Amino acid sequence: MQRICVYCGSGLGARKEYTKGARLLGKELIKNEIQLVYGGSSTGLMGEISNEVLKNGGKVIGVIPKMLLLNEPPNKNLTELIQVENMSERKEKMSDLSDGFIALPGGLGTYEELFDTISWARLKIHKKPIGLLNIEHFFDPLLDMLENSCREGFISELSLKLLLVSNNAHELINNMKTYKPY
Fold first, then answer.
1. 181 falls in which pLDDT band (50, 70, 90)?
2. 38 in Cβ contact with 68 (< 8 Å)
C-alpha cells in the first residue's frame, strides 16, 4: 500500500480528540511509508493531517476543485497540488491515485465521498480497502444506521463488510494492509 486517500472535515470539529486523531493517523502513515492523498485544504482536520505528514518527511498529494480555492486555501507545502474542475472529478482523481481510503470525522463532503467510495466498491469499480477511524465514537450513529438498513433489507451483509472500522490508526492501517476484497 503506497497511498491512502483520507476524507475528513475542513473544520476541526467540537472535540480536540479529532485533531489528535488526525495527527496520529498522519504519524501512522509515515511509519508505514504511505503517502497521503486528500482534498488539498490547509484548514481543519485536512490541514492537520497534511501538516503532520509533511513535517515528518512524508509526501502529500492534494486534489482540489478550482471553485474551492477561495474558501479552502490549499496547503502551500504540498508535494503536489492537483487542481480539477469539480467535485466529481476530485473524487475520481483521488480514487485513481490511492490504494485505499480512510474517513475521519467530517461533514457532508466527507459523508458524500465515503458513500461514493463504498458504492463503487459494492459495484466492483474498485477493490480497495475502506476504513473508518472512529475517533471518540464519531461514526457510531452512522454504523447504527447502516446496520438498521441491513436489517430492513436495503443493504446487504456484504456491503457492511466493505468497511473496516477501528478507533486506533495503527490497527486500522494493519487491517487495510491485509484486506481481501469480497
1. confident
2. no
DSSP 162: T
Q: Which three cell numbers stand for residue 96?
A: 485513481
Copy the grid coordinates of residue 61.
Answer: 498529494
Q: Are 70 and 43 in contact (CB under 8 A)?
A: no
Using a cut of 0.85, tell me whether the model's pTM lies above it: yes
Amino acid 130 reads I
Backbone angles phi, psi at 67, to 5 degrees: -65, -20
Question: From CA 37, how far away is CA 101, in angstroms rounded?
Answer: 9
Map out the domains of the chain as residue ranges: 3-177
The CATH number of 3-177 is: 3.40.50.450
Q: Packing angle between helix 169-177 and helix 16-31, nearest 10 degrees? A: 40
Is residue 100 within 8 A of residue 5, CB to CB? The reply is yes
In DSSP notation, 77-90 reads: T-SEEEEESSHHHH
Write the pLDDT tens digit of every residue in 69-86.
777 788 889 999 999 999
Q: Tell me how many degrees the CA angle 170-114-9 measures, rounded to the nearest 5.
A: 75
